[in-house]
Amino acid sequence: MHTPENISFYIISLGCSKNLVDSEFLQGTLESAGFQPVENPEDARLVIINTCGFIQDAKEESIDVIFEALQLKNDAEMQQESQSPFVVVAGCLSQRYRDSLVSEIPEIDFVYGLIDENFLPEMASVLSIDVQPVVQVAKVPLIHSIPYRYIKIAEGCSNNCSYCAIPLIRGQHVSYSPDQVCNDAALALQNGAMELNIVAQDIAAYRYKDTGLKELVERISSTSDTHFWIRLLYCHPDHTDDSIIDLIADNEKVVPYIDIPLQHVSGHILKSMGRTGNSKKYEDLIQRFRDRVPEICIRSTFMVGYPGETDDDFEELMSFVQKVKLDRVGCFMYSPEEDTRAAELADTVSQKKKQQRFNRLMEVQKDISIEKNRALVGSTVTVLVEEQVDDHNWIGRTQFDAPEVDGIFFLTGDSISIHSFVKAIITDALEYDLSGEKA
C-alpha cells in the first residue's frame, strides 16, 4: 500500500480554460491529500493527463500526450528503476471514450472521466494508495507565475449546437452558486491574481435563482477593494443582451472586452447549426456594444466548411468580416463529431476548399488587425506586466487582450515590477502585437 507523502505528481492539462480549472481543482485536492507536486513529469511518480476531446485535433493531441507519458513508464521499466510512474488519464476524451481507452491502451494505470470529488478515492483504490478523505478543497494553479486566473461559473451547455459534442461530454448547463463563484474569486485575488477571466461554455446563460451574469459579476467586483480586471469570455450571441453591455459600460473593473463566438452569419447555416442569428442581427449587436462602449474590443470565432456552406454563404461571411471589422477573430475548419446532428449531414465542402476559405478569412482579418493596431500608435493603454525580459524590457497584455489567445505588449521602461499595472504609450504596431514605452 502506498501513501500520498511518498508519491510525487504532475498534471498535464490539455484543451480549454474550463478544463484547466478542473486541473486546478485536482491540484488542490492532491496537495490537500498529501501528494507532492513536482515541476516536470520526468520526476513524477504519478502523471495525470486531463485530456481534451472537443475536436479531432484535440483528440489526437491527447492521444499523443498519453503515449509520451507511457514512454516515461517504459523507459523506467527498461532501466529497471524500482518505481515506474503511474499514468492516469481523465477529462473529456476519457469521459466520451473510456471503454476504448481501457481496451486499446491497457498500459494506462487508471482511466477516469470528468474530474470530480470521486476521482481521488477511485484512483486511490485502483492504485492501492492509502488516502484520507479531503474536504473543502481550494483550487491551486498549475503555474504560479501568472497574474491571472480563470473563474468557472457553470458546467455544461444547453445550446446544443449541431456540430458540438460538449453537451454529450459535459451535460446540460448548470450554473454554480454565487457563493461558490465569489469564494473562488476571493481566493484567487488573495493569492495574487490581478485579472479574473469569467468562463463557462456560455457565461451569458448564467442564471442561479434570481442572479444573472450581471448581478454575479457585480458581486465579484465588490469582492476586493484592490484594483483588478474582470474579463468576460464566451458569451453566446443568442443570450448576449443589453444587461451585459451595461455591465461592461458601467463597472470600472470589467475591461472593455467581450468574446462572442458568432460561428457564422448566413441565416440558413446558423439555423442548421441550431442558432437564431444572421448578418443583420449580429451587426446590430456589435453596433449596440460600440455605441455604449466606444472603446470595446470584440473577439469572435467563425467556422468555415460547415455542411451546406455554399460559395455565397462564405462570401456573406467575408463581407461581414470586412464590414464590421472585429478586433479579434479566430477561425477553424469544420470537422464532423460523431453523434452530433451535423455529423449526419453530408460533408459537402472539400478539405481543400475549407483550407482556402480559412486562409482567405484569416488573411483579411490580419489586414484588419494591423490597421486597427496602427491606429493605436500614440495612444495610452494600461498594461498588465507578466514577464521581465531584461532590465529595460518587459512583456505584458493590455486590457484589450485576453491571455493565451490574443496579442502581447512589448514594454520598455525602468523601475517596472512584474504583476503590476503600468500606463504605456504605444509606439509601434505589429499584426497582432503592440510595443510601447512606460508613460
Mean pLDDT: 95
Hey, roughly how much beta strand do the residues contain? 15-25%
Rg estimate, integer Å: 23 Å
Low-confidence stretches: none
N→C terminal distance: 60 Å
Which term fits the overall shape? globular
Let me know the number of strands: 20
Provide the spatial order of strands within the biggest beta sheet: 6-9-12-13-14-15
Name the assembly state.
single chain
Number of domains: 3
CATH architecture of the largest domain: Alpha-Beta Horseshoe
Q: What structural keywords apply?
A:
6-stranded parallel beta sheet; 5-stranded parallel beta sheet; 439 residues; pyruvate-formate lyase- activating enzyme; alpha/beta; Rossmann fold; OB fold (Dihydrolipoamide Acetyltransferase, E2P)
Describe this structure in words.
By secondary structure, the chain is α/β, with parallel strands linked by helices. The protein has three domains: 4-127, Methylthiotransferase, N-terminal domain (Rossmann fold, 3-Layer(aba) Sandwich), CATH 3.40.50.12160; 148-375, pyruvate-formate lyase- activating enzyme (Alpha-Beta Horseshoe), CATH 3.80.30.20; 380-438, Nucleic acid-binding proteins (OB fold (Dihydrolipoamide Acetyltransferase, E2P), Beta Barrel), CATH 2.40.50. Helix content is 36%, strand content 22%. It has helices spanning 17-32, 56-78, 92-104, 119-127, 166-170, 178-190, 213-221, 242-250, 267-273, 279-292, 311-324, 351-375; strands spanning 8-13, 36-37, 46-51, 86-91, 110-111, 148-152, 154-155, 174-175, 195-199, 207-208, 211-212, 229-232, 254-259, 297-304, 328-333, 380-388, 393-398, 409-412, 421-429, 434-438. Helix 1 (17-32) links the parallel strand 1 (8-13) and strand 2 (36-37). Helix 7 (213-221) packs parallel to helix 8 and helix 11 (311-324) packs parallel to helix 12. The longest helix is centred in the C-terminal third of the chain and has 25 residues, at 351-375. The chain is globular, with a radius of gyration of 23 Å.
